[in-house]
Amino acid sequence: MPPAKKRPRTYDATRTRAAVLAQFDHVRGAVRTLTREQLALPALGEWTVRDLAAHMTMALERAGRAMELPEPAGPKPELALLDWPFSTAGEAAGIADHTRELAAARPDLDALYEETAARFEALVPADAGARLVATRAGTMRSADFLVTRTVELVVHTDDLNRAAGLDIPYDRQALAACTRLLADALADKAPGGSVEVRVPPFAVVQCIGGPRHTRGTPPNVVETDPLTWIRLATGRTRWAQAIEEARVSASGERADLGPLLPLMG
Q1: Upper half-sphere CA count for residue 253 (Cβ side, 13 Å)
Q2: d(CA 16, CA 126)
Q3: What's the burial of 207, exposed, middle or buried (CB within 10 Å: 0-12/13-18/19+)?
């Protein structure tokens, strides 16, 4: 019998909404300081820093657009929160095209950020957690879709920091939500209790089938920091590289997450 999956974690929509806005504001403040030379730097794949900065507004724009549309029919969401990380790979081509078009059409990034934040605040209320919204991958609860926005913003804040040599801060709640969702997605992908994955101070999950420990120190333990975990889960860093650079500690014969990563394409 396969290991039973645990009940999904729940998130407070009001706190998540505030975290999304806080992280977006951190990014907006940094984007204002970018020079022409920095904006032209390579960032992610074929994107420049300007392309990436424009793309980050889509995290909020999509939430606002989803709330503006009528609520989809149906009593239950089609897409659970833990399924979302695995649904993103097929969107890459369309997102890339939209990003290039947006960056070309909106050269004034500060105005774009201002309009996007205002639209999000106007369209996304703090109490709409149970409302269903339509996303590219299927209908989701609004509260769950807001959690996915923290992933988009935190992951790309890290991309922007590394590409442009910035030090944009991470809102603690946004970083926590992003870390927890990706850790829970790993446990959902490989349910079990033989390996304990620790990402202090935000997440501890057990995964991978096999003997389950009941007390004391688990025989198989993986531990890393939030940003390293996020980079592993999204393919920015490879497992072997993180081990070699001592950014991950892994003890026990089952403590190899390499075959399970990345979680997002």
Answers
A1: 2
A2: 9
A3: buried
pLDDT by residue (tens digit) across 43-83? 999 999 999 999 999 999 999 999 999 999 887 899 999 99
Distance CA 178, CA 150 (A): 6
Hey, how many other C-beta atoms are within 10 angstroms of the C-beta on 6? Answer: 13
Q: What is the pLDDT of residues 196-242, one digit of tens each?
A: 999 999 999 999 987 765 666 778 999 999 999 999 999 999 999 99
Domains and CATH numbers, the chain: 13-175 (1.20.120.450), 190-260 (3.30.1050.40)
Q: Which region holds residue 65: left if phi is over 0, alpha if psi is between -120 and 50, else beta?
A: alpha
Please tell me the total number of residues recorded for the chain in this structure. 265
Three-state DSSP class for 158?
A: helix
Q: Is the pLDDT of residue 90 over 90?
A: no
Residue type (1 letter), 71 = E
Residues 6+ apart with CB under 8 A from 5: 187, 188, 191
